[in-house]
């Protein structure tokens, strides 16, 4: 079974080495500049997490013109950090976007509240179930046509949350 997500810690030594290598010998890839920019943000403390994904569908390393994730009337664009429903932009906080993107990128995979915390917040954290529940509730109010009967972010009782893989 293929893993959908894997967390790897990156220290400053490795981040600096990767940055230097990309600056000295940039590969012929449309994504090299994005990775370099992300590494610079990490090293300048402008970002705390860098999320990497494979371009294309089904894990194929291929270029894609569109970076969007589409589900029903919802589209999520990670490069511009925009979310649209029926073509209208929805304003999300950075953490709301990160949670939504994590779930949507791993459609159908169930995440516990602790896994969501580890993916979205950096370093040590105080896990409070009500914290994640509050973020999910706010996110549903913004993206769901009917937040009381969610279509996108589904609750898996006793476990956590998943993004609907039937859309």
Automatic annotation (TrEMBL):
<keyword id="KW-0238">DNA-binding</keyword>
<dbReference type="InterPro" id="IPR036388">
    <property type="entry name" value="WH-like_DNA-bd_sf"/>
</dbReference>
<dbReference type="GO" id="GO:0000156">
    <property type="term" value="F:phosphorelay response regulator activity"/>
</dbReference>
<dbReference type="GO" id="GO:0005829">
    <property type="term" value="C:cytosol"/>
</dbReference>
<keyword id="KW-0902">Two-component regulatory system</keyword>
<feature type="domain" description="OmpR/PhoB-type">
    <location>
        <begin position="66"/>
        <end position="165"/>
    </location>
</feature>
<dbReference type="Pfam" id="PF00486">
    <property type="entry name" value="Trans_reg_C"/>
</dbReference>
<dbReference type="InterPro" id="IPR039420">
    <property type="entry name" value="WalR-like"/>
</dbReference>
<keyword id="KW-0597">Phosphoprotein</keyword>
<dbReference type="GO" id="GO:0032993">
    <property type="term" value="C:protein-DNA complex"/>
</dbReference>
<feature type="DNA-binding region" description="OmpR/PhoB-type">
    <location>
        <begin position="66"/>
        <end position="165"/>
    </location>
</feature>
<dbReference type="GO" id="GO:0000976">
    <property type="term" value="F:transcription cis-regulatory region binding"/>
</dbReference>
<protein>
    <submittedName>
        <fullName>Transcriptional regulator</fullName>
    </submittedName>
</protein>
<dbReference type="GO" id="GO:0006355">
    <property type="term" value="P:regulation of DNA-templated transcription"/>
</dbReference>
<dbReference type="InterPro" id="IPR016032">
    <property type="entry name" value="Sig_transdc_resp-reg_C-effctor"/>
</dbReference>
<dbReference type="InterPro" id="IPR001867">
    <property type="entry name" value="OmpR/PhoB-type_DNA-bd"/>
</dbReference>
